[in-house]
Write a structure and sequence with these properties.
It is a single chain. The protein is α+β, with helices and mostly antiparallel strands and 581 residues long. It has 15 helices and 26 strands.
Length: 581
């Protein structure tokens, strides 16, 4: 049976969704207490809650009667508290995915608390596997009031609703007096379920895990938000070390423009951003994870390194559609055409990451072998056209080549003395790459242009100097910074590049990664006032849960694209560390 579309929760603006994540998968919860997105058992598996993109599947805990919504994360964690002020008082729902996540079993914890006055809430579990195509079946209640069932190939157990009504899902009402609380535990597994654990034990384990996961990050600018950025990246990072680019698929960058992508995979470039950001704070677990994941891919695939992988290191699947309505303005796609691209800059980014690991004494023998592999790949493939950082048509993108030069310089600087000859060769190759780029990709005004055939300004060209391909006071660096600020900066937001003759904001949203990069570029030029202006403007481009998407619609103050975008949180954290110095 298919549930009536009228029962499906209405979508909210992306800025209103909070993330629950445990490293193995993530869930989005909206202001009405509606979990409308979660894939299980893993990030790139089919969704069991697909209402976000128009499918069946959601899990709601919603106050009855009128209410005003708010919410906040407990510091240093992805434990979220939905908070509602109702006509009868204040009620909260404390919610989390049990952390660290089990690769086979997702566990959603929800604790309803009557903070002030009586609380009455509706609970609805409408779980449907395979993006809503396989509804909950074989539903039974055991002697302890726990519900069990199957959805597709998944096993389901739901505790805390013994009196629920089974009618197109499970439905119940929870009524609490002031000061009382009530626990709900949902388990979804592709393996036999273990013996039930108490909600208290699951909460204690999750609290302890987050307490040991996120450092205090003292000494960074906007320390609370810096810790939150770290927590978001930790939640998006699998035990194998891979950090998914985002928890979602198909959320539109621009309404009805076909720019909808599946970001539930690990981009090598983004992973390098994460590791370098954490290294800037002093070196933490996420640096080790990033080094381990990228080194393993390099050793396995060498010069054939793909731009992206699943969290288990498999190839990203081909793009396909789901026959769902999609999020408003968007479509319904899974898989990603990045699996058919070559991106040269990933070798440079990998070297920058591995060099950061070496500076913190966190690079083992496999890491060094991976670095040699990446350097050799640059030497062999540096003249090949590639899709570039923005994954466009193949060209000889300037950014790709200059980032490779930066990576070579970085790894040469940390090479052991026994490799002095090899390090000198890397420095010489970096010099050659920069010289070749100067001959073909330097605009008549003295700035870097996008490629030999494209004279436009590109905000990505701020990154090579930040990474050490050139110095901050090199005339080419200064001219590029000046051009990006003038041509692509608006009200202290930055756009990637100019698509056509339209105003920048009519083509796409401001790109938050570029905003934080410009803040660091200003800082490298010792203009700390301007650096903080750019930083603070972009830091505020989020909703109440403090999550960043890829783009920010400045006029409407709305998030655009998949949520949350890991590389934006990474650049925010790195800028917070750099600007504090």
């Amino acid at each position: 049976m298919t549930s009536p579309a009228a029962d499906r929760p209405d979508p909210h603006a992306l800025r209103d969704y909070a993330l629950l994540a445990d490293g193995e998968r993530g869930a989005l919860v909206g202001p009405r207490g509606d979990i409308v997105w979660m894939c299980a058992p893993a990030w790139d598996d089919d969704a069991v809650f697909a209402a976000l993109i128009g499918g069946d599947g959601w899990y709601g805990v919603t106050p009855e009667g009128p209410f005003v919504w708010g919410g906040y994360y407990e510091q240093g964690s992805l434990i979220w508290r939905s908070r509602w002020i109702t006509t009868g008082g204040v009620v909260e729902c404390r919610e989390a995915l049990v952390h660290p996540g089990d690769p086979h079993r997702a566990v959603v914890l929800r604790r309803i608390l009557a903070v002030d006055g009586e609380a009455r809430l509706r609970v609805t579990l409408n779980l449907a596997a395979r993006f809503g195509r396989s509804r909950l079946r074989d539903v039974r209640r055991d002697g302890q009031g726990r519900w069990t069932g199957r959805a597709g190939d998944l096993r389901v157990r739901f505790s805390g609703a013994p009196d629920a009504r089974h009618d197109d899902g499970l439905h119940t009402t929870v009524t609490l007096e002031a000061g009382q609380h009530h626990d709900l535990v949902l388990e979804v597994s592709d393996a036999p379920l273990p013996a039930p654990e108490t909600s208290e034990a699951l909460w204690r384990a999750t609290e302890a895990s987050w307490a040991g996961c996120v450092p205090d990050l003292t000494g960074t600018l906007s320390g609370r938000d810096a810790r939150h950025a770290y927590a978001v990246m930790a939640g998006l990072t699998s035990p194998a070390g891979g950090t998914v680019a985002a928890a979602t698929t198909s959320l539109p960058e621009r309404a009805e423009q076909g720019r909808n992508y599946d970001y539930r995979y690990v981009w090598i470039r983004d992973q390098s951003f994460v590791g370098q950001a954490v290294a800037a704070t002093g070196g933490q677990r996420l640096l080790d994870d990033s080094v381990r994941f990228v080194a393993a891919r390099l050793l396995e695939h060498g010069p054939g390194l793909a731009p992206a992988y699943t969290t288990t290191g498999r190839a990203v699947p081909d793009r396909r559609t789901l026959d769902l309505p999609g999020y408003p303005g968007g479509f319904d796609v899974v898989g990603n055409h990045v699996n058919r691209q070559f991106q040269l800059d990933v070798f440079g980014e990998a070297l920058l990451l591995l060099a950061a690991g070496a500076r913190h004494d966190r690079l083992d023998a496999d890491g060094w072998r991976a670095a040699l592999t990446a350097a050799d790949a640059i030497a062999a493939r540096r003249r090949d056209p590639d899709a570039g950082i923005w994954e466009l048509h193949d060209d000889h993108w300037t950014h790709s080549r200059l980032v490779c030069a930066a990576g070579l310089r970085a790894i040469a600087a940390v090479a052991p003395r026994t490799d002095a000859g090899r390090a000198a060769g890397w420095e010489a190759l970096a010099d050659t790459i920069v010289s070749d780029a100067s001959a073909t990709c330097l605009h008549p005004t003295g700035r870097w242009q996008r490629s030999p055939t494209d004279g436009g300004v590109d905000a990505a060209l701020l990154l090579p100097a930040l990474r050490g391909a050139l110095t901050a006071d090199d005339p080419r660096t200064v001219a590029t910074l000046r051009a990006v600020r003038a041509d692509l900066g608006r009200d202290h937001y930055v756009y990637r590049f100019r698509h056509d003759q339209r105003p920048l904001e009519d083509a796409e949203g401001a790109f938050l990664l570029c905003g934080f990069a410009l803040a660091m570029a200003e800082h490298s030029r010792h203009d700390d006032v301007e650096a903080v202006r750019w930083f603070e403007r972009n830091r505020a481009a989020c909703g109440p849960p403090g999550l960043y998407a890829e783009e920010f619609d400045v006029a409407q103050r709305q998030l655009r694209g998949n949520l949350p975008q890991a590389f934006v949180h990474a650049l925010m954290l790195e800028a917070a560390a750099r600007l504090a110095r």
